[in-house]
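Everyone, carefully examine this protein record:
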Amino acid sequence: MPEIEIYASNWRLVEVGRVILFTHGPYLGRLAVIVEIIDHKRILVDGPSKKENAGVPRHAVALNNTIVTPIVIPQLPRAAGRGPVAKAWEKAEVESKWEQSAWAKRRDQREKRRALTDFERFKVVKLKKQARFEVRKSMAAVRSAAKAS
């Protein structure tokens, strides 16, 4: 009888050690790690961040208030205490991985744009217009050089 190999999908699974991002509540926009799965709707999380106003205390949270990220802390034991979670968080360099991700960069850019004043938005429009003009001018020079030859 041939052996059958079963592979899990590469989709982001809810698992112990998976890093989550809060989408609702008092910890909006903060990262935490899944420490224990309580049931199919709730998880126990802990966010031992060293940054100011970025830590999340250990508590139960509903899954519909979070988003599962692709970042995983490997081999984190179930129901690990605060100390081992903090050590694993540092070892896995979760915060640096998050800051380098396109997802985090997009969120930061969106926040910066939301914080712009009316005059700053006006300046952005003018700078984009200048850049567009320079690109068109250089493309016209290339086209005219191509026609001439």
